[in-house]
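Hi everyone, sorry if this is the wrong subforum. Our group has a chain we'd like a structural model of before ordering constructs, and none of us has done structure prediction before. Sequence below.
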Amino acid sequence: MTDMSGNSAEQEKEVTVQTEETERAGKESGEDTAAQTEEVEDAREENAATQTEGAAGAAGESTASNSGSGIEIADRFKQNNSRPRRELVGVDNKQVETKRLVIFLALCFGVAWVVELFAVTPLYKSNDVEAVKEAVDMISQMMFTPAIAALVARLLTREGLVKSGFQLNFGECKFLFLFGWFGMTFLTFLGAVIYFLVYRNNFDPNMTEYVASYSAAMTDVYAENTSTPVEIVAAFKTDLLLKIFSAPLLDIINAFGVEWGFRAYLVPKLYRKLGAVPSMVLGGFISGLWYAPLVALGYYYGTGYGGFPVTGIIAMCIFGTVTGIISSYLCLRTGSIFPSVFAASSLNVMMSQAALFTFDGGNFFVGPAPTGIIAGIPLIMVAVIFVVDMARNPVKPSESRK
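Answer:
Right subforum, don't worry. Here is the predicted structure as tokens:
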């Protein structure tokens, strides 16, 4: 180890001489006082820095290199501990984003539409009970197509499951998780209330049509129905009460299939290309358009309406945009797919419940199902609020959630 104290004294002496020469030169040359003072201060700072280095060497520094200093080690430790634990769903590699989008959309739409047009449609229109049941089962299975398409796209482009939304960060986003669990149920119920306030004559508290169909079904199975209408209605209301808490899980598989594809894969990639609000709107529209063959089949809106099936497809795209905005907001804000999955499952389960309290079954374009323009008012209002909030406080594509 070298003797740093001697070197420090010599360096201090040299700096002192340089300082005196600088002051003398400044006075003789007539330089202005401000410049003179600045040079003096610089020289004094160099002197102080030299003394500090000498003291550090005398205390036991083995090298003069900054890379091995205690300060740098502390900085590195601080940086390592400040690295984000959770990150926004999606990936940051922009070079292959377009390729991934093409693969996903081609698989998602191609597989689903081909199966629905050439396999589901003939079965559904066959007027054979068993064939229709098989078609309905196939439709349920098609709900997993977006998730499969996202998985295949990830594997083909070596993206893996990095930042794919599988983080259960409830502690950081309690409100949005609770909204995902209860929010859609509440909004669906509120929409039904608005519908029945407008169409009061269509409210049937005795559930006449439901009781009749339930009794007929029980008679076919057991040859005799022993339940009274009051008991049937009471049993339904009890079941409905339980669904308020269990709906987020009752259709979670189908909901996951749709949400993990559209919300956890498609929307973040659109986000990096288009920005916050456009990605939420376009992602929702695309998810609504995905149902077009089933709407044309009459599976959702029926066939007895003007402009069939174009009107129904447009309505589904609008409904998909509204619900897609809500789900995208939940996914992007939390960095997790689970709130949007809970919300989608709840919506699927609760969507048709209010129609059982009508005399005519309601109207998908009006209500009391949330697909209607009247019953859908609460959903539309929340979607607008979420759009405004995201526009004012967007989640940056590279932002990490700690």
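For your construct planning: The beta strands are 86-87, 400-401. Residues 4-62 form one domain.
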